[in-house]
Amino acid sequence: MKLPHIAISLVCVFAASSLMKMANEKFELIAADYGPLGPLFILATGLFLIVLGIVMFFRAFRKA
Length: 64
Prior knowledge:
- The chain is built from three helices and no strands.
- It is mainly α.
- Helix 1 (3-25) runs antiparallel to helix 3 (37-60).
- The chain is elongated and about 50 Å long.
């Protein structure tokens, strides 16, 4: 078990959830300021962070 991978996993999932919550609350403002690509970029970044968190979590328990 690798504790740094678990810590990175938790930070990535927390950052993704905070980013998605902020984007959900301020969707109209983001869309007005950045156009249609603003919310799509935030969605892509959140999905990337979630996938990274899951991968790091699985790597923490992989045998080396």
